[in-house]
Write a structure and sequence with these properties.
It contains 13 helices and 14 strands. The chain is an alpha/beta fold and about 425 residues long. The protein is globular and about 65 Å long. The longest helix is centred in the first third of the chain and has 17 residues. A ten-stranded mixed sheet has the order 5-4-6-7-1-8-14-13-9-10, with helices on both faces. Strands 2-3 form a two-stranded antiparallel sheet.
């Protein structure tokens, strides 16, 4: 069976550094930090008092007030990003076979605010089970693709992927496979997350996973810096329209890039810590290259997982050097989490958009907030510190790794007929 080719025809983003793709990209290449004091709740008693929140977002710009109240913020974000991507792709659903258009969406946690609010309300009551009838359908993470499909009448494959911070990359890989196996023509893919609430940051603080640089939030996310002290929590959504090549050409769609490969692996090591030698990270990138029928030397840019944690950054770089060998020193490497924070289940989709736009525009976004070299990293590696760099990007690889040892990577190339 001949596999179909899959291209990117639409993008949508709602992030801490921009509520649309053009705003997001402009902030990325200018090195803008999205971190600031938390406004979603009073963080005074918390160890970490800052995060990368979405700003100036009103769900009623996309939904009527009554409908918006029935949805958790992670669904608000999903609808906003997917609406932008669908419009960007020029998808005219009444004139397309919507039986072959699906939605595959990732989230690491889903409706955390809804769950927390309902449980707290119950605990503060007299024991009577007074729950909102929308509690369950607001909370479950598969409801995001459900709402997107209902909104647009899309009857193709519809489900959620969950693999912690790799969730939306797994959604992209599943979408890629459904299309190239001729089980769908178009899939609205991506991921969303909304965890900047007491339970979310309280839980990550308890694990000592978050930066506590409360005196300087904007420089707190410091991937590959000697003084990195944990990740900065982010929120938002990214949406990517994946489409079978001939279907896209037949309707005259613009094409951003081609998705040519996806890889998956497990660390099989620890529930939260990466393999110290980066074995799972090396394997997932190897699998992605094999799937794409590319060699390590074909990659120009890696958008790394790069969370700004002491152990994670080291293991990923070990994997890159071990796999790419001398070519590792010719690559551009950058962590856009230095600007967006860590969007958890939405990270893969948002960072894939960064990789796609790097391929399209031949610009590599920077890793900001670098102040002190870490002697554990070879100084010949190009981490694209502090300033975007222009270079030809024919192929870009994007890594995402999740608690539980889940690893996923995707590779995008310039489209050629």
């Amino acid at each position: 069976m001949e596999l179909k080719r899959v291209v990117v025809t639409g993008l949508g983003a709602l992030t801490p550094i921009g509520n649309t793709v053009p705003e997001f990209w402009e902030s990325l290449i200018n090195g803008v930090s999205g971190a600031g004091p938390i406004t979603h709740y009073d963080p005074e008693k918390f160890r970490t008092k800052f995060a990368c929140e979405v700003k100036n977002f009103n769900p009623e710009d996309f939904l009527d007030k009554k409908e918006a109240r029935k949805l958790d913020p992670f669904v608000h974000y999903a609808i906003a990003a997917s609406d932008e991507a669908i419009k960007d792709a020029g998808l005219d659903f009444p004139n397309l076979d919507t039986n072959r258009i699906g939605v595959i969406w990732g989230s690491g946690i889903g409706g955390l605010k809804t769950f927390t609010d309902e449980v707290v309300n119950f605990a503060n009551g007299d024991g009577s089970p007074r729950f909102n009838p929308f509690f369950i359908p607001k909370m479950i993470l598969d409801i995001a693709p459900g709402h997107i499909s209902i909104r647009h009448g899309l009857r193709g494959p519809n489900f959620s992927t969950v693999s912690a911070c790799a969730s939306s990359t797994n959604a992209l890989i599943d979408s890629f496979n459904y299309i190239r196996l001729n089980m769908a023509d178009v899939i609205v893919s991506g991921g969303s997350e909304a965890i900047i609430y007491e339970a979310g940051l309280g839980g990550f603080n308890a694990m000592h996973a978050l930066s506590t640089r409360n005196d300087d939030p904007k420089t707190a996310s410091r991937p590959f810096d000697k003084d990195r002290d944990g990740f900065v929590a982010g929120e938002g959504a990214g949406s990517i329209i994946l489409e079978e090549l001939e279907h896209a050409k037949a309707r005259g769609a613009k094409i951003y890039a081609e998705l040519v490969g996806g890889g998956m692996s497990a660390d099989a090591n620890h529930i939260t810590a990466p393999h110290p030698d980066g074995l799972g990270a090396k394997l997932v990138m190897t699998n992605a290259l094999r799937d794409a029928e590319l060699q390590p030397g074909d990659i120009d840019y890696i958008n790394v997982h790069g969370t700004s944690t002491p152990l994670g950054d080291i293991s990923e770089v070990k994997a890159i050097v071990d796999l790419f060998k001398e070519h590792a020193f010719k690559l551009n490497i950058s962590s856009t989490k230095s600007m967006t924070g860590h969007l958890l289940g939405a990270a893969g989709a948002v960072e894939a958009i960064a990789a796609i736009l790097a391929v399209k525009n031949d610009i590599v976004p920077p890793t900001i907030n670098h102040f002190t070299d870490d002697p554990g990293f070879d100084p010949k590696l190009n981490f694209t510190f502090n300033k975007a760099q222009k270079r030809t990007v024919n192929a870009a690889l994007s890594n995402t790794f999740g608690f539980g040892g889940h690893n996923a990577s995707v590779i995008f190339k310039k489209y050629t007929a």
